[in-house]
Amino acid sequence: MTSSTDKFEFKEGGEGGTPSAEERDLNEPSILYKVLKTISIVIVWMAIGLWSEVNGATFQDLMFKNSATYASMSNAISMRGAGGLAGSILGGGLLVDRFHSKAELILAICVAVCAVLNAIVPYSQWIELLFALFLLEGWIEVIVNVAGQVVIMDIWKDKANGPLHLIHLGYGAGSFIVPQLVAPFISDVLPTEEEAITNPACDLTSEELSLNSTNITTVAPEPSDNLATGFWIVSACIAAISALWFGYFFFDKRKAENGAASQAKDLKIKQIFNPNTCSPGHPVYAILLYILMFMWIYSAVAGERIYAKYLYSYGRQQACLSKQEAANILTAFWLSFTAGRFGGFMVTNFIPMKIFIFIEGLGSLAAGLVLFFFGSNKTVLWASVCVAGIFIGPCYPSGLAWANRYMTVTAVGVTVLSIGAGVSDLTFLPAVGSTVDSVGISAMTAFALGFGVVCAALPIAMQGVACTRGDRFEREEAEEDGTQQSSH
Prior knowledge:
- With 488 residues, the protein is an all-alpha fold.
- It has helices spanning 21-27, 31-57, 59-65, 70-89, 92-98, 103-120, 127-156, 161-167, 169-182, 200-212, 227-257, 269-272, 283-317, 323-347, 353-374, 378-392, 395-406, 411-439, 443-466, 472-487.
- The protein is built from 20 helices and no strands.
- Helix 2 (31-57) crosses helix 13 (283-317), helix 6 (103-120) packs antiparallel against helix 11 (227-257) and helix 9 (169-182) runs antiparallel to helix 14.
- The longest helix is centred in the middle third of the chain and has 35 residues, at 283-317.
Protein backbone atom coordinates (compact mmCIF):
# COMPACT_ATOMS: atom_id res chain seq x y z
CA MET A 1 0.00 0.00 0.00
CA THR A 2 1.46 3.36 -0.96
CA SER A 3 0.40 6.96 -0.86
CA SER A 4 0.42 9.96 -3.12
CA THR A 5 2.20 11.89 -0.44
CA ASP A 6 5.42 10.15 -1.48
CA LYS A 7 5.70 11.85 -4.84
CA PHE A 8 8.98 10.37 -5.97
CA GLU A 9 9.34 8.55 -9.28
CA PHE A 10 10.67 4.99 -9.27
CA LYS A 11 12.93 4.05 -12.15
CA GLU A 12 12.17 0.76 -13.76
CA GLY A 13 14.31 -2.12 -12.61
CA GLY A 14 14.18 -5.57 -11.12
CA GLU A 15 11.91 -8.23 -12.47
CA GLY A 16 8.70 -7.23 -14.20
CA GLY A 17 9.60 -3.54 -14.09
CA THR A 18 9.44 -3.35 -10.26
CA PRO A 19 12.16 -1.26 -8.58
CA SER A 20 15.19 -3.07 -7.20
CA ALA A 21 16.24 -2.69 -3.55
CA GLU A 22 18.96 -0.18 -4.52
CA GLU A 23 16.48 1.89 -6.54
CA ARG A 24 13.96 1.87 -3.68
CA ASP A 25 16.65 3.24 -1.37
CA LEU A 26 17.52 6.00 -3.85
CA ASN A 27 13.88 7.02 -4.23
CA GLU A 28 13.00 6.78 -0.55
CA PRO A 29 11.63 10.11 0.73
CA SER A 30 14.12 12.09 2.82
CA ILE A 31 13.82 12.30 6.58
CA LEU A 32 13.08 16.02 6.28
CA TYR A 33 10.18 15.31 3.93
CA LYS A 34 8.81 12.66 6.28
CA VAL A 35 9.07 14.94 9.30
CA LEU A 36 7.42 17.90 7.57
CA LYS A 37 4.58 15.72 6.28
CA THR A 38 4.09 14.21 9.75
CA ILE A 39 3.99 17.64 11.42
CA SER A 40 1.42 18.77 8.85
CA ILE A 41 -0.79 15.81 9.72
CA VAL A 42 -0.39 16.52 13.45
CA ILE A 43 -1.83 19.98 12.76
CA VAL A 44 -4.79 18.43 10.94
CA TRP A 45 -5.45 16.29 14.02
CA MET A 46 -5.45 19.51 16.07
CA ALA A 47 -8.32 20.71 13.89
CA ILE A 48 -10.18 17.44 14.50
CA GLY A 49 -9.74 17.93 18.24
CA LEU A 50 -11.08 21.48 18.04
CA TRP A 51 -14.31 20.71 16.20
CA SER A 52 -14.90 17.37 17.94
CA GLU A 53 -14.46 18.44 21.56
CA VAL A 54 -15.88 21.96 21.64
CA ASN A 55 -19.27 20.41 22.44
CA GLY A 56 -17.85 18.87 25.64
CA ALA A 57 -17.14 22.21 27.31
CA THR A 58 -20.32 23.78 25.89
CA PHE A 59 -22.51 20.71 26.48
CA GLN A 60 -24.86 22.36 28.98
CA ASP A 61 -25.19 25.64 27.09
CA LEU A 62 -26.07 23.79 23.90
CA MET A 63 -28.45 21.59 25.87
CA PHE A 64 -30.30 24.63 27.28
CA LYS A 65 -30.31 26.50 23.98
CA ASN A 66 -31.87 23.56 22.14
CA SER A 67 -34.30 22.67 24.96
CA ALA A 68 -32.66 19.26 25.21
CA THR A 69 -32.04 16.70 27.97
CA TYR A 70 -28.82 14.82 28.62
CA ALA A 71 -30.23 11.92 26.62
CA SER A 72 -31.29 13.95 23.57
CA MET A 73 -28.08 16.00 23.58
CA SER A 74 -26.05 12.79 23.81
CA ASN A 75 -28.06 11.37 20.92
CA ALA A 76 -27.27 14.46 18.86
CA ILE A 77 -23.53 14.16 19.53
CA SER A 78 -23.72 10.45 18.73
CA MET A 79 -24.71 11.43 15.19
CA ARG A 80 -21.01 12.03 14.60
CA GLY A 81 -20.76 8.26 14.90
CA ALA A 82 -23.56 7.77 12.38
CA GLY A 83 -21.76 10.14 10.03
CA GLY A 84 -18.55 8.22 10.59
CA LEU A 85 -20.25 5.00 9.60
CA ALA A 86 -21.66 6.63 6.46
CA GLY A 87 -18.26 8.05 5.63
CA SER A 88 -16.65 4.66 6.14
CA ILE A 89 -19.03 3.05 3.65
CA LEU A 90 -19.38 5.95 1.19
CA GLY A 91 -15.93 7.49 1.08
CA GLY A 92 -13.16 6.96 3.61
CA GLY A 93 -10.89 4.08 2.73
CA LEU A 94 -12.34 3.52 -0.74
CA LEU A 95 -11.79 7.16 -1.68
CA VAL A 96 -8.21 7.19 -0.40
CA ASP A 97 -7.32 3.86 -1.97
CA ARG A 98 -8.63 4.94 -5.35
CA PHE A 99 -7.42 8.56 -5.50
CA HIS A 100 -4.04 8.92 -3.83
CA SER A 101 -2.90 11.90 -5.87
CA LYS A 102 -5.50 14.26 -4.38
CA ALA A 103 -4.90 13.40 -0.70
CA GLU A 104 -3.77 16.92 0.28
CA LEU A 105 -6.69 18.57 -1.52
CA ILE A 106 -9.15 16.15 0.07
CA LEU A 107 -7.78 17.01 3.52
CA ALA A 108 -7.92 20.76 2.86
CA ILE A 109 -11.52 20.72 1.62
CA CYS A 110 -12.74 18.47 4.43
CA VAL A 111 -11.18 20.63 7.14
CA ALA A 112 -12.64 23.80 5.56
CA VAL A 113 -16.15 22.32 5.50
CA CYS A 114 -15.90 21.35 9.17
CA ALA A 115 -14.90 24.93 10.01
CA VAL A 116 -18.18 26.11 8.46
CA LEU A 117 -20.27 23.43 10.19
CA ASN A 118 -18.75 24.28 13.57
CA ALA A 119 -19.59 27.97 13.11
CA ILE A 120 -23.27 27.09 12.58
CA VAL A 121 -23.62 24.97 15.77
CA PRO A 122 -24.18 27.78 18.33
CA TYR A 123 -27.03 29.26 16.27
CA SER A 124 -29.08 26.07 16.44
CA GLN A 125 -32.27 26.17 18.51
CA TRP A 126 -33.55 22.79 17.33
CA ILE A 127 -31.98 19.51 18.37
CA GLU A 128 -32.74 18.15 14.88
CA LEU A 129 -30.37 20.70 13.36
CA LEU A 130 -27.61 19.59 15.72
CA PHE A 131 -28.28 16.02 14.61
CA ALA A 132 -27.64 17.03 10.99
CA LEU A 133 -24.54 19.15 11.74
CA PHE A 134 -22.84 16.50 13.84
CA LEU A 135 -23.69 13.79 11.30
CA LEU A 136 -21.97 15.78 8.55
CA GLU A 137 -18.96 16.42 10.79
CA GLY A 138 -18.61 12.72 11.46
CA TRP A 139 -18.92 11.87 7.76
CA ILE A 140 -16.14 14.26 6.79
CA GLU A 141 -13.91 13.45 9.76
CA VAL A 142 -13.61 9.78 8.81
CA ILE A 143 -12.18 10.72 5.41
CA VAL A 144 -9.58 12.94 7.07
CA ASN A 145 -8.79 10.24 9.62
CA VAL A 146 -8.21 7.49 7.07
CA ALA A 147 -6.15 9.62 4.70
CA GLY A 148 -3.82 10.91 7.41
CA GLN A 149 -3.08 7.53 8.96
CA VAL A 150 -2.50 5.82 5.63
CA VAL A 151 0.01 8.51 4.71
CA ILE A 152 1.89 7.89 7.96
CA MET A 153 2.04 4.11 7.45
CA ASP A 154 3.18 4.60 3.87
CA ILE A 155 6.06 6.96 4.55
CA TRP A 156 7.31 5.34 7.79
CA LYS A 157 6.50 1.66 7.05
CA ASP A 158 7.91 -0.59 9.83
CA LYS A 159 8.77 2.51 11.89
CA ALA A 160 5.16 3.74 11.89
CA ASN A 161 4.38 2.89 15.55
CA GLY A 162 5.86 6.11 16.94
CA PRO A 163 4.52 8.47 14.23
CA LEU A 164 1.03 6.93 14.51
CA HIS A 165 1.01 7.91 18.18
CA LEU A 166 2.63 11.27 17.40
CA ILE A 167 -0.01 12.49 14.94
CA HIS A 168 -2.71 11.77 17.52
CA LEU A 169 -0.97 14.25 19.82
CA GLY A 170 -2.61 16.85 17.62
CA TYR A 171 -6.07 15.68 18.66
CA GLY A 172 -5.16 16.02 22.32
CA ALA A 173 -3.61 19.44 21.72
CA GLY A 174 -6.73 20.75 20.00
CA SER A 175 -8.89 19.20 22.71
CA PHE A 176 -7.11 20.78 25.68
CA ILE A 177 -7.01 24.17 23.98
CA VAL A 178 -10.71 24.32 23.15
CA PRO A 179 -12.14 24.43 26.74
CA GLN A 180 -10.04 27.53 27.42
CA LEU A 181 -11.02 29.15 24.12
CA VAL A 182 -14.74 28.90 24.88
CA ALA A 183 -14.67 29.22 28.71
CA PRO A 184 -15.19 33.03 28.69
CA PHE A 185 -18.35 32.57 26.63
CA ILE A 186 -20.06 29.85 28.74
CA SER A 187 -22.96 30.59 31.13
CA ASP A 188 -21.97 31.20 34.76
CA VAL A 189 -24.95 29.45 36.35
CA LEU A 190 -26.60 26.05 36.31
CA PRO A 191 -30.36 25.43 36.10
CA THR A 192 -31.65 24.97 39.65
CA GLU A 193 -34.42 22.59 38.66
CA GLU A 194 -32.11 20.22 36.77
CA GLU A 195 -32.81 16.70 38.06
CA ALA A 196 -29.34 15.49 37.16
CA ILE A 197 -27.84 17.59 40.00
CA THR A 198 -27.20 14.74 42.42
CA ASN A 199 -25.04 16.55 44.99
CA PRO A 200 -27.21 18.84 47.19
CA ALA A 201 -24.23 21.07 47.86
CA CYS A 202 -23.93 21.78 44.15
CA ASP A 203 -27.66 22.49 44.01
CA LEU A 204 -27.21 25.12 46.75
CA THR A 205 -24.24 26.63 44.95
CA SER A 206 -26.31 26.89 41.79
CA GLU A 207 -29.09 28.73 43.61
CA GLU A 208 -26.63 31.16 45.19
CA LEU A 209 -25.05 31.85 41.81
CA SER A 210 -28.46 32.50 40.34
CA LEU A 211 -29.40 34.96 43.09
CA ASN A 212 -26.09 36.79 42.70
CA SER A 213 -26.40 37.05 38.93
CA THR A 214 -27.77 40.06 37.12
CA ASN A 215 -30.77 38.02 36.03
CA ILE A 216 -32.26 36.92 39.38
CA THR A 217 -34.21 33.76 38.73
CA THR A 218 -34.63 30.16 39.82
CA VAL A 219 -35.49 29.09 36.30
CA ALA A 220 -32.91 27.68 33.90
CA PRO A 221 -30.84 30.61 32.62
CA GLU A 222 -30.38 31.33 28.97
CA PRO A 223 -27.02 30.31 27.50
CA SER A 224 -24.46 33.05 27.15
CA ASP A 225 -25.23 35.43 24.30
CA ASN A 226 -21.53 35.30 23.50
CA LEU A 227 -21.49 31.53 22.96
CA ALA A 228 -21.27 31.99 19.18
CA THR A 229 -18.10 34.05 19.61
CA GLY A 230 -16.34 31.09 21.14
CA PHE A 231 -17.38 28.85 18.26
CA TRP A 232 -16.28 31.46 15.72
CA ILE A 233 -12.82 31.61 17.31
CA VAL A 234 -12.57 27.83 17.06
CA SER A 235 -13.73 27.91 13.42
CA ALA A 236 -11.13 30.55 12.57
CA CYS A 237 -8.38 28.27 13.90
CA ILE A 238 -9.74 25.35 11.85
CA ALA A 239 -9.92 27.49 8.71
CA ALA A 240 -6.28 28.51 9.13
CA ILE A 241 -5.28 24.84 9.24
CA SER A 242 -7.31 24.23 6.08
CA ALA A 243 -5.45 27.06 4.34
CA LEU A 244 -2.15 25.41 5.26
CA TRP A 245 -3.20 22.22 3.48
CA PHE A 246 -4.41 24.06 0.39
CA GLY A 247 -0.90 25.48 0.22
CA TYR A 248 0.55 22.03 0.75
CA PHE A 249 -1.49 20.66 -2.14
CA PHE A 250 -0.37 23.32 -4.59
CA PHE A 251 3.27 22.95 -3.50
CA ASP A 252 3.20 19.21 -4.15
CA LYS A 253 1.32 19.77 -7.40
CA ARG A 254 4.10 22.03 -8.68
CA LYS A 255 6.63 19.44 -7.60
CA ALA A 256 4.78 16.77 -9.60
CA GLU A 257 4.65 19.07 -12.64
CA ASN A 258 8.43 19.44 -12.42
CA GLY A 259 8.86 15.72 -13.00
CA ALA A 260 8.26 14.00 -9.66
CA ALA A 261 5.60 11.35 -10.12
CA SER A 262 3.65 9.46 -7.51
CA GLN A 263 4.86 6.00 -6.61
CA ALA A 264 1.34 5.13 -5.42
CA LYS A 265 -0.65 2.55 -7.28
CA ASP A 266 -4.42 2.55 -7.23
CA LEU A 267 -5.82 -0.73 -6.05
CA LYS A 268 -8.57 -2.57 -7.85
CA ILE A 269 -11.88 -2.97 -6.02
CA LYS A 270 -11.27 -6.70 -5.61
CA GLN A 271 -7.89 -6.04 -3.97
CA ILE A 272 -9.26 -3.36 -1.68
CA PHE A 273 -11.89 -5.60 -0.09
CA ASN A 274 -9.89 -8.85 -0.10
CA PRO A 275 -8.59 -9.78 3.41
CA ASN A 276 -5.97 -11.95 1.72
CA THR A 277 -4.29 -8.68 0.69
CA CYS A 278 -3.63 -7.97 4.37
CA SER A 279 -2.28 -11.41 5.30
CA PRO A 280 -1.50 -13.43 2.14
CA GLY A 281 -2.57 -17.02 2.56
CA HIS A 282 -4.29 -16.35 5.88
CA PRO A 283 -7.49 -14.35 5.22
CA VAL A 284 -9.29 -15.74 8.30
CA TYR A 285 -6.43 -14.56 10.49
CA ALA A 286 -6.72 -11.06 8.97
CA ILE A 287 -10.48 -11.00 9.58
CA LEU A 288 -10.00 -11.99 13.25
CA LEU A 289 -7.41 -9.24 13.72
CA TYR A 290 -9.79 -6.69 12.21
CA ILE A 291 -12.57 -7.83 14.55
CA LEU A 292 -10.29 -7.48 17.58
CA MET A 293 -9.04 -4.09 16.37
CA PHE A 294 -12.67 -3.01 16.00
CA MET A 295 -13.43 -4.09 19.60
CA TRP A 296 -10.37 -2.26 20.92
CA ILE A 297 -11.22 0.95 19.06
CA TYR A 298 -14.86 0.73 20.20
CA SER A 299 -13.68 0.53 23.82
CA ALA A 300 -11.00 3.22 23.42
CA VAL A 301 -13.48 5.71 21.96
CA ALA A 302 -16.07 4.87 24.62
CA GLY A 303 -13.54 5.58 27.39
CA GLU A 304 -12.51 8.83 25.76
CA ARG A 305 -16.12 9.99 25.39
CA ILE A 306 -16.93 9.27 29.06
CA TYR A 307 -14.48 11.92 30.17
CA ALA A 308 -14.65 14.26 27.18
CA LYS A 309 -18.42 14.72 27.12
CA TYR A 310 -19.48 14.31 30.76
CA LEU A 311 -16.51 15.37 32.90
CA TYR A 312 -17.43 19.06 32.71
CA SER A 313 -21.00 18.34 33.85
CA TYR A 314 -19.76 15.95 36.55
CA GLY A 315 -17.41 18.60 37.87
CA ARG A 316 -20.17 21.24 38.00
CA GLN A 317 -22.95 19.05 39.38
CA GLN A 318 -21.21 16.42 41.52
CA ALA A 319 -17.90 17.95 42.63
CA CYS A 320 -19.34 21.51 42.87
CA LEU A 321 -16.73 23.13 40.66
CA SER A 322 -17.16 26.59 39.18
CA LYS A 323 -17.38 26.91 35.40
CA GLN A 324 -13.69 27.87 35.20
CA GLU A 325 -12.65 25.03 37.52
CA ALA A 326 -14.68 22.58 35.43
CA ALA A 327 -13.08 23.93 32.25
CA ASN A 328 -9.67 23.57 33.92
CA ILE A 329 -10.20 19.95 34.91
CA LEU A 330 -11.41 19.16 31.39
CA THR A 331 -8.24 20.83 30.10
CA ALA A 332 -6.22 18.77 32.60
CA PHE A 333 -7.74 15.59 31.18
CA TRP A 334 -6.81 16.58 27.65
CA LEU A 335 -3.31 17.63 28.71
CA SER A 336 -2.83 14.23 30.35
CA PHE A 337 -4.40 12.60 27.30
CA THR A 338 -1.88 14.39 25.08
CA ALA A 339 0.98 13.47 27.42
CA GLY A 340 -0.13 9.85 27.16
CA ARG A 341 0.02 9.98 23.40
CA PHE A 342 3.44 11.59 23.51
CA GLY A 343 4.51 8.87 25.90
CA GLY A 344 3.20 6.30 23.46
CA PHE A 345 5.24 7.92 20.71
CA MET A 346 8.37 7.80 22.88
CA VAL A 347 8.14 4.31 24.35
CA THR A 348 6.63 2.21 21.54
CA ASN A 349 10.05 2.02 19.91
CA PHE A 350 11.28 0.29 23.06
CA ILE A 351 8.21 -1.49 24.45
CA PRO A 352 6.53 -3.98 22.08
CA MET A 353 2.91 -3.24 21.26
CA LYS A 354 1.90 -6.64 22.65
CA ILE A 355 3.01 -5.39 26.08
CA PHE A 356 2.03 -1.75 25.70
CA ILE A 357 -1.67 -2.50 25.21
CA PHE A 358 -1.69 -4.39 28.54
CA ILE A 359 -0.14 -1.36 30.28
CA GLU A 360 -2.86 0.90 28.83
CA GLY A 361 -5.60 -1.43 30.00
CA LEU A 362 -4.35 -1.83 33.57
CA GLY A 363 -3.78 1.92 33.94
CA SER A 364 -7.31 2.69 32.75
CA LEU A 365 -8.72 0.14 35.18
CA ALA A 366 -6.82 1.66 38.13
CA ALA A 367 -8.09 5.17 37.28
CA GLY A 368 -11.66 3.91 36.92
CA LEU A 369 -11.59 2.17 40.30
CA VAL A 370 -10.39 5.27 42.14
CA LEU A 371 -12.87 7.54 40.35
CA PHE A 372 -15.79 5.20 41.08
CA PHE A 373 -15.18 5.05 44.84
CA PHE A 374 -13.74 8.52 45.58
CA GLY A 375 -14.66 10.71 42.59
CA SER A 376 -16.67 13.30 44.56
CA ASN A 377 -13.50 14.44 46.33
CA LYS A 378 -11.95 17.28 44.32
CA THR A 379 -8.34 16.22 44.90
CA VAL A 380 -9.03 12.61 44.03
CA LEU A 381 -11.06 13.70 41.01
CA TRP A 382 -8.15 15.72 39.65
CA ALA A 383 -5.67 12.88 40.24
CA SER A 384 -7.82 10.11 38.77
CA VAL A 385 -8.79 12.18 35.74
CA CYS A 386 -5.13 12.92 34.96
CA VAL A 387 -4.16 9.25 35.35
CA ALA A 388 -7.08 8.22 33.12
CA GLY A 389 -6.00 10.69 30.44
CA ILE A 390 -2.45 9.34 30.39
CA PHE A 391 -3.57 5.76 29.76
CA ILE A 392 -6.59 6.45 27.52
CA GLY A 393 -4.65 8.82 25.27
CA PRO A 394 -2.57 6.24 23.40
CA CYS A 395 -5.34 3.61 23.16
CA TYR A 396 -6.76 4.68 19.79
CA PRO A 397 -3.46 4.84 17.86
CA SER A 398 -2.31 1.69 19.65
CA GLY A 399 -5.12 -0.26 18.00
CA LEU A 400 -3.83 0.57 14.54
CA ALA A 401 -0.15 0.26 15.52
CA TRP A 402 -0.86 -3.17 17.03
CA ALA A 403 -2.67 -4.41 13.91
CA ASN A 404 0.06 -2.97 11.68
CA ARG A 405 2.62 -5.22 13.41
CA TYR A 406 0.73 -8.38 12.52
CA MET A 407 -0.74 -7.69 9.06
CA THR A 408 -0.69 -5.19 6.19
CA VAL A 409 -3.40 -2.62 6.92
CA THR A 410 -4.98 -1.09 3.80
CA ALA A 411 -6.87 2.21 3.71
CA VAL A 412 -10.12 0.27 3.87
CA GLY A 413 -8.58 -1.54 6.84
CA VAL A 414 -7.91 1.79 8.51
CA THR A 415 -11.59 2.51 7.96
CA VAL A 416 -12.30 -0.23 10.52
CA LEU A 417 -11.08 2.27 13.12
CA SER A 418 -13.62 4.82 11.95
CA ILE A 419 -16.36 2.19 11.93
CA GLY A 420 -15.44 1.18 15.48
CA ALA A 421 -15.47 4.81 16.59
CA GLY A 422 -18.76 5.46 14.80
CA VAL A 423 -20.52 2.45 16.30
CA SER A 424 -19.18 3.42 19.73
CA ASP A 425 -20.58 6.95 19.42
CA LEU A 426 -23.87 5.71 18.05
CA THR A 427 -24.50 3.12 20.76
CA PHE A 428 -22.51 4.19 23.79
CA LEU A 429 -23.25 7.92 24.05
CA PRO A 430 -27.05 7.46 24.05
CA ALA A 431 -26.68 4.80 26.76
CA VAL A 432 -24.68 7.17 28.96
CA GLY A 433 -27.06 10.08 28.33
CA SER A 434 -30.15 8.04 29.18
CA THR A 435 -28.53 6.70 32.35
CA VAL A 436 -27.52 10.17 33.49
CA ASP A 437 -31.09 11.40 32.97
CA SER A 438 -32.36 8.47 35.07
CA VAL A 439 -29.90 8.25 37.97
CA GLY A 440 -27.80 11.41 37.81
CA ILE A 441 -24.41 12.53 36.57
CA SER A 442 -22.64 10.35 39.17
CA ALA A 443 -23.31 7.43 36.79
CA MET A 444 -20.29 8.66 34.80
CA THR A 445 -17.97 6.97 37.30
CA ALA A 446 -19.66 3.58 36.82
CA PHE A 447 -19.11 3.80 33.08
CA ALA A 448 -15.47 4.78 33.67
CA LEU A 449 -14.97 1.68 35.80
CA GLY A 450 -16.66 -0.55 33.22
CA PHE A 451 -14.40 0.81 30.52
CA GLY A 452 -11.35 0.01 32.66
CA VAL A 453 -12.45 -3.59 33.11
CA VAL A 454 -12.97 -4.13 29.37
CA CYS A 455 -9.75 -2.35 28.42
CA ALA A 456 -7.74 -4.53 30.82
CA ALA A 457 -9.28 -7.81 29.63
CA LEU A 458 -9.39 -7.32 25.84
CA PRO A 459 -5.59 -7.51 25.21
CA ILE A 460 -5.65 -11.14 26.37
CA ALA A 461 -7.82 -12.09 23.39
CA MET A 462 -5.88 -9.81 21.04
CA GLN A 463 -2.53 -11.39 21.77
CA GLY A 464 -4.04 -14.86 21.88
CA VAL A 465 -4.88 -14.55 18.18
CA ALA A 466 -1.84 -12.48 17.11
CA CYS A 467 0.71 -14.92 18.53
CA THR A 468 -0.47 -17.64 16.14
CA ARG A 469 1.33 -15.86 13.29
CA GLY A 470 3.69 -13.43 15.00
CA ASP A 471 5.14 -10.05 13.99
CA ARG A 472 4.93 -9.64 10.21
CA PHE A 473 8.05 -7.45 10.01
CA GLU A 474 10.06 -10.10 11.81
CA ARG A 475 8.66 -12.73 9.42
CA GLU A 476 9.55 -10.61 6.40
CA GLU A 477 13.10 -10.05 7.67
CA ALA A 478 13.52 -13.76 8.31
CA GLU A 479 12.22 -14.60 4.83
CA GLU A 480 14.53 -12.02 3.23
CA ASP A 481 17.55 -13.36 5.13
CA GLY A 482 16.63 -16.89 4.04
CA THR A 483 16.38 -15.78 0.41
CA GLN A 484 19.75 -14.05 0.54
CA GLN A 485 21.43 -17.08 2.09
CA SER A 486 19.97 -19.43 -0.53
CA SER A 487 21.15 -17.13 -3.34
CA HIS A 488 24.69 -17.26 -1.98
